[in-house]
Each structure stands twice: as structure tokens, then as C-alpha cells.
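Reviewers asked in the last cycle whether our approach scales beyond single polypeptides. To address this, we selected a multi-component target totalling 701 residues and predicted its structure end to end. The input consisted of the following lines:
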Amino acid sequence: MSFLEKFEHPNILTTTTDKLFNWARANSLWPFTYGLACCAIEMMASTMPRHDMARFGMEVFRASPRQADVMIVSGTITDKMAPIITHLHHQMSEPRWTIAMGACACSGGMFWDSYNVVQGVDLLIPVDVYIPGCPPRPEALIYGMQQLQRKVRQDTQVGKFSKMADNPLGDYIKMKPEVGGKS
Amino acid sequence: MTAAGEITGQDRSMLHLEEMVLNMGPQHPSTHGVLRLVLHLDGEMLISVDPVLGYLHRGFEKLAENRTYLQYLAMISRLDYLSGIFMEWSYVRSVEALMDIEVPKRAEYIRVIIGELNRIISHHVAIGDFMLNLGAVTPFFWVFRDREDVMDMLEMVTGQRMMYNFMRIGGVRWDLPDAFEADCRKFLKEHPAKIDDYEKLITDNEIFLARTLGMGIIKPYDALDYGRSGPHARPPGAAGDLPPPAGDPARPAVAPEAAPGEVPPHPVQAPGAPRRRRRIHHVLEIAQVGAEMADDEQTERERCRENRRRECREEQRDGRDQNETDEEEANRVRQE
Amino acid sequence: MTAEDLKLTAPEVLEYARDLLGKLARDLAISDWHVVIEVGAEDLPEVALRLRDDNKLSCKYLSTIIGVDYEEWMETLYMLRSQDHSVPVRLRVKLDRERPEVPSVAYIWSGANWHEREAFDFFGIQFQGHPDLRHILTREDMDSFPLRKDARPHRKRRRSGQVTGIEEPVRLPGEPDSRERS
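The resulting structure, written as C-alpha cells, was:
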């Protein structure tokens, strides 16, 4: 892929390679089994014969973060679990995306005022798609995954590598210093 | 080493063997939900385990301090999300016991039917996940497929697939819809065949037996000592169930077959899944009983409907507003 | 368990417990369908042993241990059940709120281990003689006891526009920014 490093911006020469990469990634998003609570059951149900997520390429749920593309955070994040989420997200290899599934992962949900609950996973890790619901129906999760596919298809591979040398933390660089980003 | 590669006693004195501490962290393929286990292993055999809890502690009790009774009702089914109706039921029953509220008979029947349907799907997940932990993926898919039928019915009644919010203090939220009974009876006819499928696949399966028989043995006294009762205590021979507290008004007034003390003791075979399957047969029977009891209520419901229709007709005839509240009616009567 | 034992009623259990425990039981009462025995903290292990080992009462099953914070004092409640009769027995121990300490019954009923850890975790009740008293449900470094009545319960509501982890939301090209509309 060294020839892509020569380009600073997407241009006519890279449209097809971008399309190729994006097609491959969007149609084989491998989710990371990160079921925490009730939404996990609906996440499991969405891979089951009634609503089949495998037809969109997402059937391979990998338990190891290295092998997974998209982390579906389904369930309530507690204070005890928070460092583990960040740890696992760090361990996922790029390209990686995150889906916050359910009200608890989006914003703390109905437990927002509990002493032990983090008000939304986007206080910890960057989130690409938010799926509201308590729990969201499997159809809603599939719709959310399709929105993520749409997002992936807009992606570009150009300019990433030169930026990566200055910016090794990748998407974490955008996070505010209070939560661990660099300014 | 022997020719077969086994480690002999002589080898053992030469090798330095030590216990391995492995962290089976809160996220891994077989924690449905989050449970951290610090394992002490000798090779592949587990010597001891130290569970670390709290990764899904949401603080329900503290949140309840700042919710009204009705607001909290919506939250409580998340406690055990697979059998949410029982969480609501126990909460609602406690409030009714404190306030001496009597629940109408039809509502009790509806509670039992919906509750037992929920128990069926909860036990299905138990079987499926148990088999998934042993490495068998097929039952996992089967149980979720069968769950969908029941969840369709529950969605028809309550509007939700999982967190029903159906119980109310003093009854249930609304009556069963008309199409429910036919669906339920159809399910009760067809479902035992599916459970027989599970039995055929799992019960005498060589791998299942090899992995579960003789594992995790608990002596009868220890069972009670650790606070195990019911299905966890029957296999050790601790005679299982505790007698239900006499005079406890929090037990439902119907379906006496559901009393735990009367479940016949099962022969001790492979632990785990077969026990649950017999339980599912049992709850299917209860659901059938509930459905039969609902027949008695059919006439009751028709009678109520007739009354209401008659009232509406009378009101129309007299030119009164049908949506008048009691206060307005009292005011109007006073003025006349 | 015999058929006669199952027919034990709550008043009978209360009288039997009164004879069994003598001076150790400060107060016996029937509340709803439970027999409630109030004991002092220092007498708790002796009472627990007697209730557990007695042939007739044989309260071998500890259902749960509950901590309660009344604002002037604290309590621990021990819910006991038996296989031989159907009367639940409840032990109440009143504790001083400033220094809530009570002997542990973890060596009497093994299941009490975790229940006591939970009561400690939520209320700060010290169980003396507990083999491993540490946090069970909250974070290990949690310094406050959340279920006390004077504990700050709540996090503030996360208002829209509040700092999140990400400074710029990632937008799809060509998609209108939803915040501009409102």
C-alpha cells in the first residue's frame, strides 16, 4: 500500500481503491462480543434465525478484540467496567468502529443517576453509531449496523498513513484532555 | 514420560509444576453478561475459582429511593432481564401485600399465563447458553428460534419483547387481546415437539455427559449451607425445595400446581439441562391450566362487555356524554 | 421432616424459640408470617448456632442478610428458613450508626460470606471475624457507602452539549448536521 502514502488527499486515482477497501470492510464487519446486559440478549437475537444479521456479513462474532472490527457496546456501563471498556477498545486493531446500543450505552439510560453507572459510553471511547431503545429491537440493531456500513463506505484510506506518524493515537487525539486525549 | 505421553510420578518430581492463575475477565465468550472469574488451574482442571462481581451493578436499590412506586415499576424488569415479568411480579406483589390490595381473579390468571410463558423463554436461554459454554452451538440457535414465537405472543399482549412493564399494582396493565388465546394454544400444542428435539440432541449426548457428569460435586449439607435451594439443591440430594412459608399472602392465589413443594422429585441423572427441560414440560402444563382457567373467564368477560355496551347505548339514548368522568356526572346530577 | 413438623405454626415456633434462647433473645414477635427475634450483637453467634443446630427448628438455610439504615441506628436482618418447617425466622440486630459492628456468621452459614460483604459494601457494617471482608459490588477503591441515607445518591444529569469524550463528532460527508436544525 505504499503508493497510497504518496497522496495527501483523496483524488481521482484513489477512488477505486477506496471503493474496494470500503466495500470489503463494510460487507464484512465482524462484531466484538461485548454484551453487558439486556441489550446483549437482543444482540444475540439479531443473529438468530428470525432476524439474521449474517446476511449482511456480520455473523462472525469474535471474542478477541484483535480480530473484531466493530465493538457493539450493548448494556449499562458501570464504573467498575469502564476501565475494561477502554482497555479493550485500545486493544482493537484499526480500522475499528463502535456502536452504542441501547439507552444505557448512549447516555446512561434509566440508570443515569446511579452511583455506579457511566452516563454513556462516549465518555470513554469514540462512538460511531448510537442506537436508542431499551432494548432496541433486533431490526433496530440491524438498521444501526447498516448505517455504520454507510459510514464505512464513505471512508478513505488516503492521507491516513502520513497522519498516523504525527498522530499515533488516531481517533483518541480528538478526545478532550480530561478523558485522556492529547491537546 | 510413558509412551502415550502421560506424565508419570517420576516425571512429576523432576518437573516443577505450579498452579496457574488465569483471569477469565469480565469479557469473554461465555460470560453472557459480565462475570470475572480468577481461576486457579492445574493444567485444564480447575482447582478453585474466585468470582469477582459487580461489573453490572447498577444500583437499583438506591435508585428506588428516588422514584415513585409506579416509576420504579418500569425499571425493575431490568433486574433479571431474561425473566423480567417475575421481577415485576415480585415487586408488585410486595406492594400489594403492604397495602392489602386484592387483585382480581382474572388478573391473577393473566399474570400466571404471562409469567409462565416468560419462564419458558428464560429457561430456553439457560439451556442454550449452557450448551454454548460446552461448545455446542446448535441448541443455542434452536432456543432463540423458539423464543421468537413466545416473544411474538408476549409482544401481542404487552407491546414489548423483553421488558414488559405489564404488571401493575393491583392487576395487570390491560386485558389479553382476542388473538392471544388461539396463538397460545397453538404454541402449547407445537412446543413439546421442539423440546423433544432438544432432548434427543442433548440428553444422551456423549460429549455432554462426559463434560457434566461428576463435575462440580456438592454435598447435600453444603448445598443448604451455601444457600442453594430448589433446582440447585435437588441433584445433591438435599431434598431440594424449602417448604413455602405458611400464610404468606404474597403467593399467587391461583395455579396451586405451581407451588414448588409439590414438584415431584426427579431421578438424579445428568445435572443441568435435563432438569430444566422437565421443568419446561411442567410449566407448559401450568400454562395449559392457565389457558383452561381463562375459558372460565371468557363468559365473565363477555358479560362485562355486554354491560358496557348496554351502558353506552343507554347514554346515547339519553344524550349524555360518554366520556364524562364521575365528578362531572356527580355535578350534573346535583344540578338536575 | 415429618408431617407434624410441617404443621408448626408461627406462635408455636415463637414459644419454642423463647424456650430455646432464654435470655439471649431480647424480643420475640410475629410480624406478618415471620417470627422476628431481636438479639444483641454480641449474642448473635450463639443464637445463630442454637437455631441452626436445633433438631426442631433447624434453620440451616440462610436466605439473605440485609442491612438497614434507620437514621438513628442501623440494623442487620438475617432471614432464616428451614427444610423441616415452613415458618421463616428473622433475626434482628440493632447496631450503632457511628460504629456498626457485628460478629460475622460466615462460619455458621457459608452463604453468609457474600451477604455480609454486600452489607459491608453498601452500609459500612463491619463484620468481625469475616474471612475476607471487601467490596463485592462496587469498585474496590470506593470510599463511601452508597446505600446509607446520607450518601449522595446521584450523578448530575448529563446536559446536551456537555463535554463528551469526543470534541468533533464525525460526520458523514453530505449529511446535514442535526444540531444546526435545532
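Chain A has a mean pLDDT of 83. We regard this as preliminary and will revisit it once experimental data from Aim 1 are available.
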